[in-house]
């Protein structure tokens, strides 16, 4: 009887671990695409009106230590490149860290976000930051090129 109970417990534990792994991987996939798409769209908008983007960086955004022009180039490059890495799950943790830095710089360099009547503007940045920290901590999951590369290295 005890052997049967232990066997059942072992099978349920394996099922639970598999379910947890697949569920976590699905969550990571959704987070990668959601947060990546937010930044990618912002980068495309800035790229589409480069003159307006430069004006924003000169007049509105106060990025410390960088000239407005360099800040615009670096910011837009980050908003376009890091999401692409997240979408395919390649170098996912560094990409999440890079987007976290872009997000943090947006909040630091545009303090008016805190004074808008609608708190959604700043709250979005907090939500995105939290999602990026989850990806940084838990990784991209099994539905990523990172997992494929790791499996190849491990010989699985």
Automatic annotation (TrEMBL):
The chain crosses the membrane at residues 70-88, 95-114, 126-145. It holds the Pfam family DoxX. It is a multi-pass membrane protein. Its main location: membrane. It comes from the Bacteria. Belongs to the DoxX family. This is Putative oxidoreductase. The lineage of its organism: Bacteria, Pseudomonadati, Pseudomonadota, Betaproteobacteria, Burkholderiales.
């Amino acid at each position: 009887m005890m052997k049967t109970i232990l066997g059942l417990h072992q099978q349920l534990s394996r099922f639970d671990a598999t379910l947890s792994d697949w569920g976590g991987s699905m969550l990571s996939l959704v987070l990668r695409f959601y947060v990546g798409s937010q930044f990618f769209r912002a980068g495309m908008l800035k790229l589409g009106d480069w003159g307006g983007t430069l004006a924003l960086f000169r007049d509105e955004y106060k990025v410390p230590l960088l000239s407005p022009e360099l800040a615009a180039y670096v910011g837009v490059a980050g908003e376009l490149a890091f999401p692409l890495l997240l979408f395919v799950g390649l170098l996912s943790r560094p990409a999440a860290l890079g987007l976290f830095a872009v997000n943090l710089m947006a909040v630091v360099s545009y303090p008016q976000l805190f004074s808008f009547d609608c708190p959604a503007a700043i709250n979005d940045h907090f939500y995105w930051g939290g999602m990026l920290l989850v990806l940084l901590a838990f990784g991209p999951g099994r539905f990523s090129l990172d997992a494929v590369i790791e499996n190849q290295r491990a010989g699985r």
